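ok, trying the design again with the full structure, not the truncated one.
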């Protein structure tokens, strides 16, 4: 199992001028990731975001894990092992720290408890308290 805590990445440490997370996604991620199912060549965003909300209690932890994964994709760190088996490990996508911060924050916020993977309201309440 994952140890929920990943050290070394502090999203709040990135400075000023934050690019728009959705714009970063459209440019750098949407070739492979659709937002909703069906998938393109990678798991869609909303079920993945729901997965992250199940695994991590706070946005800070979830975003830190995601940023660490994007900087160095590692199959042992993937929250969705089945996705790695099904689609192969995600390649490294070069992003600036500001882009990384914007896109991971946006990604986390795509959580939709009404769709797949979510488990009731627990994650939603945690999210409200920790935003
Ligand atoms: C070339 C295709 C490709 C592109 C481009 C791509 N991804 Fe992925 N991504 C994948 C695949 C395949 C997986 C599933 C296997 C895995 O987890 O490595 C994945 C998995 C993920 C995961 C789940 C990681 C985990 O913890 O399990 C996240 C989050 C993610 N991508 C975010 C992004 C973001 C953000 C971008 C844009 C900056 C992006 N991806 C661009 C192919 C891609």
């Amino acid at each position: 199992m994952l140890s929920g805590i990943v050290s070394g990445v502090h999203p709040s440490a990135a400075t000023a001028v934050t690019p728009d997370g959705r714009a970063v996604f459209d440019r750098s991620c949407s070739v492979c990731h659709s937002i909703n199912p069906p998938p393109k060549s990678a798991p869609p965003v909303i079920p993945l975001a729901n997965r992250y909300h199940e695994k991590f209690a706070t946005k800070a932890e979830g975003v830190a894990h995601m940023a660490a994964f994007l900087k160095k994709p590692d199959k042992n760190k993937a929250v969705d092992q089945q996705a790695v088996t099904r689609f192969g490990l995600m390649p490294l996508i070069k992003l600036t720290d500001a882009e990384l911060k914007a896109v991971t924050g946006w990604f986390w916020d795509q959580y939709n408890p009404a769709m797949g993977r979510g488990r009731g309201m627990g994650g939603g309440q945690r999210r409200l308290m920790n935003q």
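Keeping the full-length input from now on. Helices lie at 21-28, 45-55, 59-71, 81-87, 97-108, 122-130.
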